[in-house]
């Protein structure tokens, strides 16, 4: 076996696509400790700077005192604790929806939702750049699976129009809210209109929008003032701006009951440690009340973009904390990330298949805890690496 596997690994190395892990020895913050060296962290999804927040860590410890380290069972057996229940009610209230349901991760939420909603006789349409968990969920569902061009409403409408003539029973349109590797936004209102015209259901995975967009951190849906009729299926994750772990789906009572009955990745897995839910409740309170974190991000994004443009960097069309710099070549991206690291900056080096072939990029992410000086220093370092 190993000889066969080694051949594939070798090929991946030769293509400059090999992945290596770095090992972190500090908490997640605007600085990270790697191999005994402090690096400026410009690659985490901890957009609000909450992953290392003392109040959330204190809540986590209190949760462990109450509940111990694990839930001991799935939600449908004896793993559903009061802390999970309270958090679900808080998330329902936060999103303005009747109910919310916790999942163990965003990957599992997406697998579970799509598979509970569609099957063999149905159709799933997905944005070309959707997150892998959405694509995998669609493929596993055994529904007819199609991708429309990135944020291309005309292409989606044409595909739905063609499907209207076919015999698909249910039609599910699925999109990232904020695209994870590009930072741009789904045209949610137009997608909702098209779905309405074609009697289809719209699912938005706002993993990178929650906490960051909207007046109270309610994400793309709050930002665009969209109703539950327009976007009946809303997914959020808790490991990014919320700084903890897990995910949730928010929607109608019928949707949530359907997921409890038929969502296999909900049913057949251990419930999140309840202490994580206690920590997340504390986090949610900070997400909602500390508007300064979103204001600071807006400032840092503007500062970064203007400084980067001044030195001629090619930015993408993103107004979110995800600020990729498209380089194209896989080795070029690896070399750039390595020389940034030598200068003390950690950024994401993103290559295929995470992004399309020929579109490798540095994925720079901003965090509310970054200082203006840190952002300026990053741009200087990028200038030296050009
Ligand atoms: C990160 C991400 C997920 C996965 O969430 P996890 O909780 O990390 O499993 C799902 N969807 C999108 C768009 C993401 O960016």
Chart the SSEs and their pairings:
Elements: H1 2-14, E1 31-34, E2 37-42, H2 54-67, H3 75-79, H4 82-95, E3 99-103, H5 106-117, E4 123-127, H6 132-140, E5 144-148, H7 153-165, E6 171-176, H8 188-197, E7 201-205, H9 219-223, E8 233-237, E9 247-251, H10 253-262, H11 264-267, H12 274-289, H13 291-310, E10 322-328, H14 330-342, E11 345-350, E12 360-365, H15 372-385
Parallel strand pairs: 2-11, 4-5, 4-6, 6-7, 7-8
Antiparallel strand pairs: 1-2, 3-9, 8-9, 10-12, 11-12
Bound molecules: pyridoxal-5'-phosphate.
Pyridoxal-5'-phosphate is lined by residues 105-107, 110, 131, 133, 176, 180, 205, 207-208, 237, 239, 247.
User: What percent of residues are in strands?
Assistant: 15-25%
| pLDDT < 50 stretches | none
The structural class is alpha/beta
Shape: globular
Relative helix content: 40-55%
Number of helices: 15
Largest sheet: 7 strands, mixed
Question: Which small molecules are bound?
Answer: pyridoxal-5'-phosphate
Q: Quick one: how many beta strands?
A: 12
The strand order across the widest sheet is: 3-9-8-7-6-4-5
Rg, nearest Å: 21 Å
Order of SSEs: HEEHHHEHEHEHEHEHEEHHHHEHEEH
Q: How many angstroms does the end-to-end distance come to?
A: 42 Å
Mean pLDDT: 97
Provide a brief overview of the structure.
By secondary structure, the protein is α/β, with parallel strands linked by helices. It has helices at residues 2-14, 54-67, 75-79, 82-95, 106-117, 132-140, 153-165, 188-197, 219-223, 253-262, 264-267, 274-289, 291-310, 330-342, 372-385, and strands spanning 31-34, 37-42, 99-103, 123-127, 144-148, 171-176, 201-205, 233-237, 247-251, 322-328, 345-350, 360-365.
């Amino acid at each position: 076996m190993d000889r066969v596997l080694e051949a594939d690994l070798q090929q991946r190395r030769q293509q400059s696509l090999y992945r290596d892990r770095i090992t972190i020895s500090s908490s997640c913050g605007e600085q990270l400790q790697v191999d005994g060296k402090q690096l400026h962290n410009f690659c985490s999804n901890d957009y609000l700077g909450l992953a290392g927040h003392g109040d959330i860590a204190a809540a986590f410890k209190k949760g462990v005192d109450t509940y111990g380290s694990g839930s001991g069972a799935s939600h449908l057996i004896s793993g559903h604790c009061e802390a999970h229940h309270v958090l679900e009610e808080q998330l329902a209230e936060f999103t303005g929806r009747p109910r919310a349901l916790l999942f163990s991760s965003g990957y599992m939420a997406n697998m579970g939702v799509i598979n509970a909603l569609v099957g063999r006789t149905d159709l799933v349409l997905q944005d070309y750049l959707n997150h892998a968990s959405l694509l995998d969920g669609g493929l596993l569902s055994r529904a007819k699976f199609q991708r429309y061009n990135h944020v291309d409403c005309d292409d989606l409408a044409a595909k739905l129009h063609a499907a209207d003539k076919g015999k698909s029973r249910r039609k599910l349109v699925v999109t990232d809210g904020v695209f994870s590797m590009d930072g741009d936004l789904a045209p949610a209102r137009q997608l909702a209109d098209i779905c309405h015209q074609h009697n289809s259901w719209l699912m938005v995975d706002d993993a990178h929008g929650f906490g960051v967009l909207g007046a109270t951190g309610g994400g793309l849906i709050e930002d665009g003032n969209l109703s539950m009729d327009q976007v009946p299926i809303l997914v959020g994750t808790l490991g990014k701006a919320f700084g903890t772990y897990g995910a949730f789906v928010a929607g109608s009572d019928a949707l949530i009951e359907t997921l409890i009955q038929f969502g296999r990745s909900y049913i057949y897995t251990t419930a999140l440690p309840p202490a994580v839910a206690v920590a997340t409740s504390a986090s949610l309170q900070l997400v909602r009340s500390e508007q300064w974190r979103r204001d600071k991000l807006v400032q840092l994004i503007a500062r970064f973009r203007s400084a980067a443009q001044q030195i001629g960097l090619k930015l993408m069309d993103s107004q979110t904390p995800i600020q990729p710099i498209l380089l194209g070549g896989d080795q070029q991206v690896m070399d750039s990330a390595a020389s940034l690291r030598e200068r003390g900056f950690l950024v994401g080096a993103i290559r295929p298949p995470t992004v399309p072939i020929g579109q490798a990029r540095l994925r720079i992410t901003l965090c509310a805890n970054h200082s203006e000086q840190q952002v300026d220093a990053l741009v200087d370092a990028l200038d030296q690496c050009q």
